[in-house]
Design a protein that fits this description.
The chain has 215 residues and is an alpha/beta fold. The chain has helices spanning 21-28, 42-51, 123-141, 152-161, 175-190, 202-205, and strands at residues 6-11, 16-18, 35-39, 87-95, 98-106, 112-121, 147-149, 197-199.
């Protein structure tokens, strides 16, 4: 018998996609402001989880500030909720898998802080590695500023799972990538960090400053 519902928990005890209402209820019970929704199939649920609740949850209409124009620096007077003293990370991938690169920038100035490129990878792997790279550099500097990412999946891999849960299989072409993944997972296992990891709200603010501009 096919499953009829999948449940997305965006804000709860442990965000994720759950197979039964009982599992979902356990994550939202007693959580003020919990956000969750049911979907008819796994694909729709996973897509909704990645995109975030804004598109799927009804909320009162209100005037919206203009999004950050593509290629233009963030106007922090329009978005006072964004913390300018922060870093942003993003990844880009040509194909899935394909040539992948990730980078980090200063949120306010968009100065590039680091960049890496691999011959084969996925966007989620790049997002994960970018976050860990930023956290490792900031921890080394004793700098506790927050880090923004527009990937909820990668944020959960870092915060909840402490590992890269990719389905990509190792091969000769991506051997270097998997060595870097291993180092990133080791760093997460051996270190703690005080930096907040914050979801970049693309639908509200426009593209993240670290975006590669290839959409």
């Amino acid at each position: 018998m096919a499953k009829s519902k999948y449940y997305v928990v965006w804000y709860g005890k442990t965000p994720g996609v759950y197979l039964t209402w009982k599992e979902c209820e356990a994550q939202i019970k007693g959580v003020a402001g919990a956000k969750f929704k049911s979907f008819e199939n796994r694909e729709a649920a996973e897509r909704a989880y990645e995109e975030g609740p804004e598109r799927y949850m009804q909320k009162p209409s209100r005037p919206k500030a203009s999004k950050k124009p593509k290629g233009e620096p963030v106007d922090f007077s329009h978005f006072p909720e964004i913390e300018p003293v922060s870093w942003c990370v993003d990844a880009a991938c040509s194909g899935n898998p394909g040539v992948m690169e990730y980078r980090g920038v200063d949120t306010a100035t968009e100065q590039q802080l680091f960049i890496r490129k691999f011959q084969e990878g996925t966007n989620n792997i790049g997002e994960f590695l970018a976050i860990v790279h930023a956290l490792a550099l900031l921890t080394q500097k004793g700098d506790h500023r927050p880090v923004y990412s527009d990937s909820r999946i990668a944020m959960n891999w870092v915060l909840r799972d402490k590992r890269c849960k990719t389905k990509l299989s190792p091969n000769a072409k991506n051997a270097e990538l998997f060595r870097v993944i291993q180092r990133a997972e080791y760093w997460l296992a051996q270190n703690t960090f005080r930096n907040r990891l914050i979801k970049w709200e693309t639908k509200k603010w426009g593209e993240i400053p670290a975006d590669f501009g290839r959409k």
